[in-house]
Give the backbone structure.
Amino acid sequence: MPDRLYSVEQVADLLGLHVRTVRNYVRDGRLRAVRIGKQYRIAPADVEAFTGTAAEPPPPLAVRHAEVSSVVQLDDVDEDTASRLSTLVMAGLQGKDRTDPLHVQTVYQAERSTMKIIVVGGLANTAALLEIIGGLVD
């Protein structure tokens, strides 16, 4: 049994016809339908056979997307070290999957001797970059 059956009104809307016209097609046997209670129901395949066209393909399933937002704070970092870390982190971005790019920003606060690395992107690429940062810090 098909997943979905159309009502006469839905078929009329699909085909741009009046409801009475569709009912007449059903009664004349030109459009195959099933009577359920007092109403006709029409399978999509029967609409296709009647019109001689393929039905509109179902909409594609939504692809799930997961994204990570993370902030790495490094304390007790001087300006030269922050500059080197920033360069190494940006170099670590080279060769990553371009279909799911990472957005990375580094901020150095001299008065606090802290550096923050803000990373936004897909799960796998973010994890790989955090591994690189972990290796650089240790």
